[in-house]
Design brief:
This is Fimbrial-type adhesion domain-containing protein. With 362 residues, the protein is mostly beta strands. It has no helices and 23 strands. The protein has 2 domains: 167 residues, Immunoglobulin-like (Sandwich), CATH 2.60.40; 138 residues, Fimbrial-type adhesion domain (Immunoglobulin-like). The strands form 5 sheets. Strands 3, 6, 8, 9, 10, 11 and 13 form a 7-stranded antiparallel beta sheet that branches. Strands 18, 19, 20, 21, 22 and 23 form a 6-stranded antiparallel beta sheet that branches.
Length: 362
């Protein structure tokens, strides 16, 4: 809209005097409007599309495949990670699915995967397998599978193709091997559980599965009986002159731990500092209540200083020491404790220190 504003002189009448002759300036305006028509349009361009969900349908002939396992596992309590506990336990070829129909068979095949978490890998006969954790303490498993005409393929945590062939019927074989996870094993029974599953796929959809199940796992963990559960070292009274310099030692005192093993086992020991659990040196921390300072306690096995480690029986625990090899029957573990000077300033007083020992068996 456009507005034009101008002026015009015209006489005006004073409302009070009625006199003419005065001029006042009046404003006038003239307005002129413009209108426009705006046309809005939407132009659609494209194609009509649709998607079809691929599908696969099969009759499950064998809903559950149960692996054969030994009635009982007799193993050492502590076995290194990946060490085999059984041979391969084969479940012979069985028809799992029949009357399979695919909407798209270009990516048809059979797949398998584990139902449990992977805790590492292990090599078996040159082939790498994922190790899966079972509910049984210290026991894991590896799996493989194959179809009627194929070769054995390791089964992983994610979908693993055992065959990429389209078929209306699938026959497959499966095998499992129990291996150690490195954690201590426990005597007892673990109820059967689902180890994995097997399905038919078209690359997108899957059929109803065949479950790969474990039977009850029965374990007898071999250990040794500890006949000496508490050991006390009464170190002799010494004078400051017996520890003349930092690193000097005195007052060596021996004690023994008696054990008895029912089967041939290697025995490992870890000694832990009670006052300072994080101590990984060979000098034991003095306990509260000790009045002496500048002195510590060392523990020796076969004349060698023992460094302290965590309170654990897991294979490979830091600072574990092999104390008996191939022991069957009774055995003695001789330890020596002694004073060691740790500082230039040495103060007389009482000395007390506490430690624990943990044994593991392989």
């Amino acid at each position: 809209m456009e507005h034009h504003i101008g002026t015009e002189s015209r006489p005006c009448v004073d409302a009070w005097s009625g006199l003419r002759g005065r001029y006042c300036q009046a404003f006038w305006s003239m307005a002129r409007s413009k209108y426009s028509l705006t046309f809005l349009g939407i132009l659609f361009s494209g194609t009509i599309s649709y998607s079809a969900h691929a599908s696969v349908s099969c009759t499950v002939v064998t809903p559950v495949v149960t692996f054969p396992l030994p009635a009982q596992l007799t193993v050492a309590q502590n076995v290194p990670f990946g060490q085999a506990l059984t041979n391969w336990q084969d479940r012979s070829e069985v028809q799992t699915h029949d009357h399979c129909v695919f909407s798209d068979n270009t990516k048809a095949g059979s797949i398998a995967r584990s139902s449990n978490a992977s805790v590492g890998t292990v090599s078996d006969a040159g082939t790498t397998y994922e190790v899966f954790k079972s509910p049984a303490p210290g026991i894991g498993y590896i799996m493989k599978g194959k179809d009627r005409y194929g070769s054995w393929t390791p089964i992983g945590r994610r979908d693993t193709y055992l065959t990429t062939d389209y078929s209306s019927s699938y026959d497959s074989a499966f095998s499992v091997k129990l291996v150690a996870t490195g954690q201590p094993m426990v005597t007892g029974q673990t109820p059967g559980f689902q180890a994995g599953l097997f399905e038919i796929t078209d690359g997108n959809d899957v059929s109803a599965p065949t479950l790969l199940n474990m039977p009850t796992i029965s374990v007898r963990a071999q250990t040794c009986r500890v006949r000496t559960s508490a050991v006390e070292f009464q170190l002799p009274r010494i004078a400051p002159r017996d520890l003349p310099a930092v690193g000097s030692v005195a007052g060596a005192t021996k004690q023994t731990i008696e054990i008895s093993c029912g089967s041939v086992l290697d025995v490992y020991m870890v000694i832990s500092d009670v006052t300072n659990p994080g101590n990984r040196t060979s000098t034991l921390t003095l306990s509260p209540g000790s009045t002496a300072s500048g002195v510590g306690i060392e523990v020796l096995y076969l004349g060698k200083r023992v460094s302290f480690g965590p309170d654990s029986s897991v294979v490979g625990t830091q600072n574990e020491v092999l104390v008996k090899s191939n022991l069957k029957g009774t055995g003695s573990i001789w330890l020596t404790a002694q004073y060691v000077r740790t500082a230039s300033n040495l103060r007389e007083g009482s000395v007390k220190a506490l430690a624990t020992f943990t044994l593991s068996y392989r």
